[in-house]
Amino acid sequence: MEIRLLVIRTNEQKRLADFYSLLGLAFDYHKHGNSPMHYSATIGSLVLEIYPLTKSQTDLDKNLRLGFAIENFSETLQLLKNNDITFSEPTLTDFGFVTIISDPDGRKIELYKK
After folding, report:
1. What is the pLDDT of residues 44-59, one digit of tens each?
2. In the chain, at which end, N or C, are there fewer CB atoms within 10 A of the end residue's CB?
3. Please, what are the domains in the chain?
4. Chain mean position to CA 102
């Protein structure tokens, strides 16, 4: 089994796509079928999509926690710092070096040194 699709919903799609682009994701802005316009990026066989909130959705889901293993760990941390994005001090864990940041909606993201 593998995860193929992950959808994040927000009321600020562009802002969220710009943020995740700092981590190295390249987004397309498109729609398919009857879907609303949304951002989409591919990570291996996984598609990460950023959709607007549904009509019945009033609150963001801040409980989702994401983790990304990134090749250019030090450079990414410097890029985040240059964009005034705070992160925890990188620490060595059983899974390698990790730092924790929050996306603009408040979701926690673990960044691992690949």
Report:
1. 999 999 999 999 998 8
2. N
3. 5-54+63-113 (3.10.180.10)
4. 9
